[in-house]
């Protein structure tokens, strides 16, 4: 946690990415390759890398392939994200490969399109697509280039807790609360089912809840409403408004639950119950 806070003192990247120590192994106009190493800080109850960490990695690889066509400080907002899972476990070092697919033609704004594959120690975990709108920074916010740090870079200077700012202390408080539960990362990015306490620990570069964390919040809630033993097979997320508010909540409704497959619709709401995310997930019954 202190390492993530130390990395976060360099502007341009968000805390979730710094906490996971995302490695930008290659970033270029022809494609991107990002990766994260496994560890107890990001393992779920089954020992696999948390779904939120995977979604963050996929989201970053998709966005980086588009930002590589522009400039490193450009703000891009996720418009849609779809991931199809293979059923392979999320084990070992996860590597995401993003590939730019062009800009949507004749649009009033610049909507970038990209695709991604994520593989781990057990092979390909998922593949998917995303779209991102190029936006101006919010009023009064200055965006900095994303520091393309990789695993060969030197580690940050060690911090002591008495050196932290007020905002950084809030991150540590969230971590301390999460450590009291059975699974650290699940508590850190959602202590109760379907609920995310917003803040620096879960925010993006402009202070809104990070898009990959929101997708995982919705997908986990969808799995939880299904009776029986079901595995997430695919997720399609449409981003409607910024993830603003102190608390974001996911509400899931079963659309179909058959013998072999199920479909769940999930809405994530934030400030003033404003709809932030619309998600449809498909699930496969486990043998």
The CATH topology annotation reads as: Thiol Ester Dehydrase, Chain A
Low-confidence stretches: none
* Total E-strand runs: 11
* Percentage of β-strand residues: 25-35%
CATH architecture name: Roll
Based on CA inertia axes, which overall geometry fits? globular
Rounded to the nearest angstrom, the radius of gyration is 18 Å
Mean pLDDT: 94
CATH superfamily: Hotdog Thioesterase
Reconstruct the topology from this structure.
Elements: H1 2-8, H2 15-20, E1 23-28, E2 31-36, H3 51-67, E3 75-85, E4 94-103, E5 111-120, E6 123-135, H4 166-179, H5 184-188, E7 195-197, H6 211-225, E8 230-239, E9 247-257, E10 261-269, E11 275-285
Antiparallel strand pairs: 1-2, 2-4, 3-6, 3-8, 4-5, 5-6, 7-9, 8-11, 9-10, 10-11
Helix pairs in contact: 3-6
Summarize the structure.
The protein is α+β, with helices and mostly antiparallel strands and 287 residues long.
Notable characteristics:
alpha+beta, single chain, Thiol Ester Dehydrase, Chain A, eleven-stranded antiparallel beta sheet, 6 helices, 35% strand, 287 residues, 22% helix
